[in-house]
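ingest -> fold -> write
write: protein_1
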Amino acid sequence: MLCAIFLRLAPAATANLSRPGVMDAVAEAARGGSAPSVAALTALGQPEEFARLFVERLAYLLRLREAGILRGAGPFADLKDGMYLCNVPDEREAHRIMEADPFLRTGLIEPDYAIRRWLAAV
């Protein structure tokens, strides 16, 4: 079953993600199957604590992708909202995925995320 998880980023996450070059560095590293380094992110102006947490979160998402659970993830262009597309057996598993997200656990994702089952037609 496919589930879309819609989430809102906390203002601190949006502020750090909107620094020039950050999303490009993340996309490039993720295409290669890894997260950017903490040093690469701090060089782009992210505070070290945020950069460490961000790398942890990206590693988590990449593990989900490697396991065939996460089909896609990322923010919308405004960097305020985002979405995960997950292949899960039920909505309970989608909740478990969100509850384990390092950004949610530390308040960088707002707790009012929404999970919707998606009936892909094509």
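write: protein_2
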Amino acid sequence: MVRTALDRYHCDILDCVTEGDRVFAKMRFSGIHVSPFKGYAPTGKPVQWLGAALFRARGPLISELWVLGDLFSLEADLKKNALG
């Protein structure tokens, strides 16, 4: 859903901490709003929001993933863009 709605969807890792087989990352998600998303018509404008993820690795593979995103700031960006 996100990749369809946001062209040039990107995730930047801003900070990363590892402990054993666990990795915690602070991230910034961004993209250009090109399709309906969360009830908002496409605006062609950039949106971004912050998030965090906790990964668990098993060898070179990710075996577990938990992600939390600041959807309130994403919603604020979508609303601001929709209003002009």
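write: annotation protein_2
The chain has one domain: 2-83.
The longest strand covers residues 6-19.
pipeline exit 0
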